[in-house]
Amino acid sequence: MMPDTLSDDEKRILLTLARQALTQGVNKQLLEPLDLSIYSDHLQQEGASFVTLTEGGELRGCIGALEPYQPLAEDVREHAVAAALEDYRFPQVRSQELAYIQIEISRLTIPQVFDYQRPDELVARLRPNVDGLILKDGFRRATFLPQVWEKLPDPEMFLSHLCQKMGAPEDLWRRRIMQALIYQVEEFHE
To answer: Do 125 and 82 fall within a single domain?
Structure first.
């Protein structure tokens, strides 16, 4: 759970910043520097976010950070542009699509190590619709936000798809204890 949630006003501001950055990025305009001093402490503090773009209810791009490294307001702007232009799974968003794109922002808690000894323990202890999961195996790493549980509600299927996303065999989670980290999100959208 988030230690301190954003106010409705802060969420509106972040969605506005994301929309402005998305529009400017897609139209090949440079983002104006932010005057962080006009924003609340939450938006000035370092924060990690994922920005998800959908069009007609279908995923159109999703990029974010797992660890905070810049002010939350900047993080959201950066990832709004990246989700539109740098998600390798999709062609770049075109300006004529902007009116149909919906923005969702997920503010992440700091990922915590999730120790487990057996694959069945990992399955049993994951909390569907609550936990986001990061799996690491050597240099490979992938994550699913908690929202992915809506499409993959079965923990075994969730883990198999996450292994595939990582570029590993889908049953790797059954055969090897990998480094696992969990986090939660505060999610809001247009």
So the answer is: no
Distances (CA, A) of 29 to 81, 165, 171: 11, 32, 44
Clarify whether residues 103 and 16 are in a common domain.
Answer: yes
Question: What's the predicted TM-score (pTM) here?
Answer: 0.90
- Phi, psi (deg, nearest 5) at residue 27: -90, 15
Tell me, yes or no, whether 122 lies in a domain: yes
Contact 130, 146 (CB under 8 A): yes
CATH number of the domain bearing residue 50: 3.30.700.20
Q: Please name the residues in contact with 186: beta carbons below 8 A apart, sequence gap of 6 or more.
A: 2, 5, 6, 106, 107
For 128-140, the pLDDT digits (tens) are 999 999 999 999 9
